[in-house]
């Protein structure tokens, strides 16, 4: 089913009027300041918390959002450094809360072996409005190249560049939801003046490897770890997940740097984008969070195995 979006003219990209109309329809539905920020602040007894930026959206919603990084304390240059990012798409709830749960439960156990850096909520306005885009109708997860337009992505790039650190592993936590077909893909087609073709939303967990720098053994380690917590997505009848041919069970490949994806933001040789399906009748919000933690643990254990 191809859905025609209610804003704009079919075949014509949006101008400022259409973007303004879209923004006027966005509403605050939950609170970053009540649900996410206190959890970050509670970590300061055991981790270093650094504010790497802020999003001044006073004119949009009367709020300025602080952007935080959480770092393990015993940071040492001779240890591998790992990055976990969540909430690039703010509406993908388990990405944010999975990153926080990892910090709350497992990060300290690994911090004697690796330097841990976590960006729990890169797009807090998106979290509050349950949105894929930022207020300018830009997808942060297509903006991690040097010419990317989303402030959310560029502040991450500047912060990571300032650390002057090489990364061994980067796990970027995401979800694929039913609203991808009902809202976000039709909106994107309308914004870009193109035709939307919905794909089947996979029922289950999968990962996205990097076409340009694939690491299939890492993806398998993650899938094996997550399978203990929730079910892995089966490919459709044409051997695809979200319109892409599967590379192995539960894994597809995207060209991350070419698309400006968050997974290309470091020099890490090991990279994976996780995709949880929170709308499945076979899972719960808690299982989705646990699946994100299991993905990080599977990746970390794989990294440490390679190093030993």
TrEMBL record:
CDD domains xref list: M14_REP34-like
Stretches that traverse the bilayer: none
Top-level division of the source organism's lineage: Bacteria
Co-factor requirement: Zn(2+)
Peptidase M14 domain ranges (all copies): 28-307
Gene3D superfamilies membership: Zn peptidases
Pfam families, per the entry: AstE_AspA_cat (PF24827)
InterPro entries: AstE_AspA_cat (IPR055438), Peptidase_M14 (IPR000834)
Biological process (GO), any one: proteolysis
Protein name: Succinylglutamate desuccinylase / Aspartoacylase family protein
Gene source species: Rheinheimera pacifica
């Amino acid at each position: 089913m191809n859905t025609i979006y209610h804003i704009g003219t079919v075949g014509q990209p949006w101008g400022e009027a259409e973007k303004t109309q879209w923004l006027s329809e966005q509403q605050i539905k939950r609170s970053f300041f009540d649900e996410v920020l206190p959890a970050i602040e509670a970590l300061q007894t055991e981790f270093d918390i650094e504010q790497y930026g802020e999003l001044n959206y006073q004119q949009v919603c009367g709020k300025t959002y602080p952007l935080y990084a959480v770092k393990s304390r015993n940071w040492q240059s001779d240890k591998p450094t790992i990055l976990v990012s969540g909430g690039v798409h703010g509406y993908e709830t388990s990405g944010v809360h999975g990153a926080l749960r990892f910090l709350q439960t497992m990060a300290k156990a690994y911090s004697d072996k690796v330097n841990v850096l976590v960006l729990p909520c890169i797009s807090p306005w998106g979290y509050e409005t349950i949105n894929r885009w930022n207020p300018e109708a830009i997808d942060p997860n297509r903006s991690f190249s040097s010419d990317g337009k989303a402030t959310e992505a560029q502040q991450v790039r500047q912060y990571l560049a300032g650390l002057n650190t090489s990364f061994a592993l980067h796990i970027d936590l995401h979800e694929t939801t039913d609203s991808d077909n009902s809202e976000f893909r039709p909106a994107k087609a309308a914004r870009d003046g193109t035709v939307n073709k919905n794909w089947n939303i996979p029922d289950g967990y999968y990962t996205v490897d990097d076409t340009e720098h694939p690491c299939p053994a890492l993806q398998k380690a993650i899938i094996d770890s997550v399978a203990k917590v929730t079910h892995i997505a089966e490919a459709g009848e044409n051997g695809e997940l979200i319109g892409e041919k599967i590379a192995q069970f539960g894994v597809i490949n995207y060209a991350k740097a070419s698309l400006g994806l968050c997974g290309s933001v470091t020099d890490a040789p090991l990279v994976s984008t996780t995709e949880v399906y929170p709308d499945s009748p076979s899972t719960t919000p808690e299982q989705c969070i646990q699946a994100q933690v299991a993905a990080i643990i599977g990746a970390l254990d794989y990294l440490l195995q390679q190093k030993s």
